[in-house]
Amino acid sequence: MLYNGWEREADIHLSRMGAVEQADGCDVIRPRQALVGGRMAAEVVGLQLRRAECWRSLCREGGRRRWHLPSLHSPYRCCSTGTTYENINRPVIDRIIRVDHAGEYGANRIYAGQMAVLGRTSVGPVIRKMWDQEKGHLKKFNELMVLYRVRPTILLPFWNIAGFMLGAGTALLGKEGAMACTVAVEESISHHYNNQIRTLVEEDPEKYRELLEVIKKFRDEEMEHHDIGLDHDAELAPAYSILKNAIQMGCKAAIFLSERI
Length: 261
Fold this sequence. Notes:
70% of the residues lie in helices and 3% in strands. The chain is mainly α and 261 residues long.
């Protein structure tokens, strides 16, 4: 227990008067009965204030340790390459991680929509395999959001619905429609990842080495999904060129918005 002497005495004193309860594993001061007498009331109030301030401080630091967030009193090291929270290009990193997290979230919803329609068909296992990889991408960007302390885009609820509708809607056109959607989306994401790689290399390839490795790996897997789509007759979808161009225009708009809000 991280108590000073006065804290221990405060606990004992307050417990004897029935003013301390246990809630959710923590001491919480909740008077069970009215405390009368001017001197006693003043003493208890003083102890309560001191205890509350102590626990606020402990919870701030303890909570940050529990969730692997940086200490409030020391520079935070983002990764093993020596990058710290203070010496990264915050605007660039914020935009990259925010939009990539949104993109992987949207991709997950697209595959969820496709599986809802085609999950029991012959192409279901193919979609499932690609979706499993996208789940891994999203998990990683969830971790990077915490690591670099980046807020998500406020548009996630919209991408949740739009992604599922896009996946399910194209799947209703058949296997070819779903694969055309995959080709269009994965081509857009791969192109976007390439732009980010160039940006980070221009910034400092050594400083952002670990982030670059993540983006390069995911870029390669997105291109694999693109090729899988072509191998499964994406180009035979009705109005393939029109469908592909329309989806990619939507992807560009989603990227633009998710980077900024």
